[in-house]
User: Which sequence fits this backbone?
């Protein structure tokens, strides 16, 4: 299994606050052909609580090859044009594929007790050596059981197949050691956690266990930056 993760800025006045908004209908219509394709499974979408103008889509595939086959179909450009009607097209759409060890759908909403999904993007230099990855995973492996022992409703993490460009005008997203406005390609590590609510996650962040162990992540010297969001996801029903 592999998880497609798409993020993009919504066009002005577009909202994904409920499954009934016009923008939500566009996403449902956009994802319907993908969900009908060979190898596609559940799909979820929403907008970040911290940034309501930024949308995220999760879609489960049997393999990266299945999604690539769909993207190579003759009508794919026309298919994407549907989504672009609600996208702020002056800003990029980011597409990642993450081979989580198991499907993260319980954290996305399959577990009905999940009221908020934490999504964290960790950015590292690209390319990243196997030795560096092993060192990073040593820190992750120290922190993961601490989260699992909390009130979290499942923890998933994995390396994206794609590298992404970060930085740019005004220095937004610039990594450690980079000049303001300088861009660089980054390897992405994605963490997904299910919580009963945002408050439940915030409570964990004030706990003794969190304070005693977060250095395993924040102390990773190769890290170029992080982005942490919460989202209440809607399942696509077609």
Assistant:
């Amino acid at each position: 299994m592999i998880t497609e993760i798409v993020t993009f800025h919504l066009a002005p006045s577009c909202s994904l606050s409920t499954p009934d908004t016009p923008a939500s209908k566009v996403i449902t219509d956009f994802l319907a052909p993908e969900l009908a394709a060979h190898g596609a499974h559940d799909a979820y979408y929403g907008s970040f609580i911290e940034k309501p103008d930024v949308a995220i889509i999760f879609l489960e595939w049997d393999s990266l090859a299945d999604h690539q086959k769909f993207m190579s179909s003759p009508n794919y450009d026309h298919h994407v044009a549907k989504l672009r009607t609600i996208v702020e097209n002056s800003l990029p759409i980011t597409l990642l594929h993450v081979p989580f060890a198991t499907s993260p759908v319980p954290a996305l909403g399959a577990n009905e007790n999940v009221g908020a999904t934490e999504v964290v993007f960790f950015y590292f230099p690209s390319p990243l050596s196997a030795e560096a990855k092993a060192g990073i995973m040593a820190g992750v492996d120290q922190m993961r059981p601490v989260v699992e022992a909390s009130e979290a409703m499942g923890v998933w993490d994995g390396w994206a197949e794609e590298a992404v460009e970060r930085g740019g005008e005004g220095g937004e997203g610039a990594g450690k050691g980079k000049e303001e406005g300088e861009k660089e390609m980054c390897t992405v590590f994605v963490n997904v956690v299910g919580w009963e609510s945002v408050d439940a996650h915030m409570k964990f962040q004030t706990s003794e266990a969190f304070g005693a162990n977060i250095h395993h992540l924040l102390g990773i010297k190769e890290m170029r930056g992080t982005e942490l969001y919460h989202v209440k996801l809607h399942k696509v029903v077609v």
Notes: Residues 169-175 have pLDDT under 50 and may be disordered. The two ends are 21 Å apart (CA to CA).
